[in-house]
Amino acid sequence: MRFSINPEMATQEVQPNETLTNLKAESDTLKTKLEDERAKLHDVELHQVAEKVDGLGQFIMKTRRTLKGHGNKVLCMDWCKDKRRIVSSSQDGKVIVWDAFTTNKEHAVTMPCTWVMACAYAPSGCAVACGGLDNKCSVYPLSLDKNENLAAKKKSVAMHTNYLSACSFTNSDMQILTSSGDGTCALWDVESGQLLQSFHGHAADVLCLDLAPSETGNTFVSGGCDKKANVWDMRSGQCIQSFETHESDINSVRYYPSGDAFASGSDDATCRLYDLRADREVAIYSKESIIFGASSVDFSLSGRLLFGGYNDYTINVWDVLKGTRVSILFGHENRVSTLRLSPDGTAFCSGSWDHTLRIWA
Amino acid sequence: MRSVSAANIQPRSMEDVIARMQDEKNGIPIRTVKSFLSKIPSVFSGSDIVQWMIKNLNIEDQVEALHLGTLMAAHGYFFPISDHVLTLKDDGTFYRFQTPYFWPSNCWEPENTDYAVYLCKRTMQNKARLELADYEAESLARLQRAFARKWEFIFMQAEAQAKVDKKRDKIERKILDSQERAFWDVHRPVPGCVNTTEVDIKKSSRMKNPHKTRKSVYGPQNDVLTSFQKFTKYCFPLLFQITYWGGQLDRHRLKMSKVAESLLAYTELYVEYDPFITPTDPSNPWITDDTTVWELEASKEPGQQRVKRWAFGINEVLKDQVGREQFLKFLESEFSSENLRFWLAVQEVKKRPIREVPTRVQEIWQEFLASGAPSAINVDSKSYDKTTQNVKDPGRYAFEDAQDHIFKLMKSDSYSRFIRSSAYQELLQAKKKVRSSKP
């Protein structure tokens, strides 16, 4: 930084404003330059290149299971690596582990707070993490003994200064990544509760995050109420890429399966695709008739389909390459708040404010 | 993709849509209908709404139009004049627009006392059609108990309002009564109906205070800032922005055409593995209740499709447990497994609790990198020096540079050999043999 802050200079009325104006001008110039650089490489649209790809046929996607048991809005869910178990959390403080295949409830925990907005399954399948209005992320080991009181073994891991909006284990039971209404993300050591790395850069609440699907990479993407989607280096804590094209809160971010791109869902009623190599937005998924926000998105295994859960109670299925909607799924009786593909891609699960979860295939 | 319609503007909200519905030229035609003894003012039919939506919002079918229309009714932007339940029907049912005064965007949060006044006032109106519904009568009874002490006050307010209402023009009254009722249908919905006034708690505090700014990391929130404080509050974010964007300018970017081809190629490669596009074989357990496909995958015998995938790239082998084992087995047979074992060990370290890291780092150093190491690996001198330094103060990323170097080596050397190996080819053919021997 070539500019130094000299308090003496600052106390003179004229100087600070002038410098601030200069800084603003420089900032704006850089931003325009950056946009120009990005635009130079914009030689074609994704959907144009995708014209040569076969269109997708008619889809028959139905609700194959309905999970009833929550007493209030379902806010979040996650799959176990075994491809059939899920954990879900709701506004009434309940966290439930289900065998979605049989629809049996296997564990239930009542959190000491309402609005449990985040939950995650550990890679080993032996624990779940959850949190929300308590500003914390807690880990509960899952006991084989159904009668054992899970709440007794609870371990507090993360501490934020505002609500916990999302949490995810890394590829290990030993680390958890969290995002919060306090505007930060953080990486924690589960055993000790130690903060390993914090991520600052969002100017408002961070609502969502997703870890890159790479065996070698150390990055994740987050989305916030500042309309930005940021890509972070977990090792250094630095924001390595940032995208700001949405017109409202970004409620959900999810990596494309190759890890080279990610999708976002926003209150501006659109979903968008951003490519990391092109360093820009490469597709917008929207329709005149879709005027409610998208709360949650996920890709099918090949990345050809993008499933979006919306606040108008529907799920829209998009052709990622061609940009068209291939299906609209009705069924939920209130907002869809959470949506995730199963680990082997055979189904996806949606959770809703109508107190239920549905498995679609 | 954004569709280009006649109106050419993507509606941003229900209110945008309502504005278009109420447009004099292109909106829904509103009329007064003469019924038996009276007039029904300012109405339009459910079918009118559905047809308008299909035509003006590029909606493909009636089901979608009904769904969106029902949502708009449930939020209170228009309502059926003869029903408390706010849904849209594609028939001659009459609907009326809600007055903007009662729109949800005004952030109404009516109290139970307001509802009590309203229900009380309704009982003062002796028109048969304005009789309380069962659920309303129950609510009134509950409210009378809850507000027993101040009921006289509530009654007085109701009386005052009823007096004012009586003075209004008959037609105007009909419209206002229906709009007021529709307002309460939104805020005190019929039991079993969705309450559309519920908000996401993450957003609600910001909705009420749209100008509430986040506590700044860079300085005091106080309105009265000194020149210096103002300076630093706005200066720092700008400086960070300038530094960040300056750095981004030098980033290497790919052309859209290249990126598009890459996305297409990836999707094409994996489409046969995508159960939503290519039906699984055996069947999808969620559809047929048959879990064979999961049992096969859990077994140690990898199917041909799964083995084929390992050839797509080294990441496929590394993320599949059976793939890793086969890769390791192959390298051990060639006595060249130290690279993979090092890579796997470093991955393991990163997964351990922070407490265990220093010990593990030492173990890996001794096994793979120290002089005389039993499984010595070859790392470039720069990475070796850096790693030597890191190990003195060991963190989870002590071996990052070395691991990067080894990964590149594995990718170009060990991995390619594995895919070309007879061991791999045999696995690839294995299932085929089994298949053809079936009767």
Secondary structure: elements and pairs:
The complex is a heterodimer of chains A (361) and B (439).
Chain A: H1 7-11, H2 14-40, H3 46-49, E1 63-68, E2 74-79, E3 85-90, E4 94-99, E5 104-110, E6 118-121, E7 127-131, E8 136-141, E9 155-159, E10 164-169, E11 175-180, E12 184-189, E13 195-200, E14 206-211, E15 219-224, E16 229-233, E17 239-243, E18 250-255, E19 261-266, E20 271-275, E21 280-285, E22 294-299, E23 305-310, E24 315-319, E25 325-329, E26 336-341, E27 348-352, E28 356-360
Antiparallel strand pairs in A: 1-28, 2-3, 3-4, 4-5, 6-7, 7-8, 8-9, 10-11, 11-12, 12-13, 14-15, 15-16, 16-17, 18-19, 19-20, 20-21, 22-23, 23-24, 24-25, 26-27, 27-28
Chain B: H1 14-21, E1 31-34, E2 39-45, H2 46-56, H3 62-74, E3 78-80, E4 94-97, H4 112-124, H5 134-146, H6 151-167, H7 170-187, H8 201-208, H9 227-249, H10 256-270, H11 285-288, H12 292-298, H13 304-309, H14 314-319, H15 321-333, H16 338-351, H17 357-369, H18 381-392, H19 400-412, H20 414-420, H21 422-437
Antiparallel strand pairs in B: 1-2, 2-4, 3-4
InterPro entries (chain B): DEP_dom, G-protein_gamma-like_dom, GGL_sf, RGS, RGS6/7/9/11, RGS6/7/9/11_DHEX_sf, RGS_DHEX, RGS_sf
Protein name (chain B): Regulator of G protein signaling 7
GO molecular function, one term (chain B): GTPase activator activity
Model description:
The complex is a heterodimer of chains A (361) and B (439). Chain A is mainly beta and 361 residues long. Chain A has helices at residues 7-11, 14-40, 46-49, and strands at 63-68, 74-79, 85-90, 94-99, 104-110, 118-121, 127-131, 136-141, 155-159, 164-169, 175-180, 184-189, 195-200, 206-211, 219-224, 229-233, 239-243, 250-255, 261-266, 271-275, 280-285, 294-299, 305-310, 315-319, 325-329, 336-341, 348-352, 356-360. Chain A contains three helices and 28 strands. The longest helix of chain A is centred in the first third of the chain and has 27 residues, at 14-40. With 439 residues, chain B is mainly α. Chain B has three domains: 6-106, Orthogonal Bundle (Arc Repressor Mutant, subunit A), CATH 1.10.10.10; 112-199, Methyltransferase, Methionine Synthase (B12-binding Domains), Chain A, domain 1; 282-430, Orthogonal Bundle (Regulator of G-protein Signalling 4, domain 2). In chain B, helix 4 (112-124) crosses helix 5 and helix 18 runs antiparallel to helix 19. Classes of the chains: A mainly beta (361), B mainly alpha (439). Chains A and B meet through helix 1, helix 2, helix 3, strand 17 and strand 21 of A and helix 1, helix 3, helix 8, helix 9 and helix 10 of B. Chain B: One of its GO terms (biological process) is negative regulation of signal transduction.
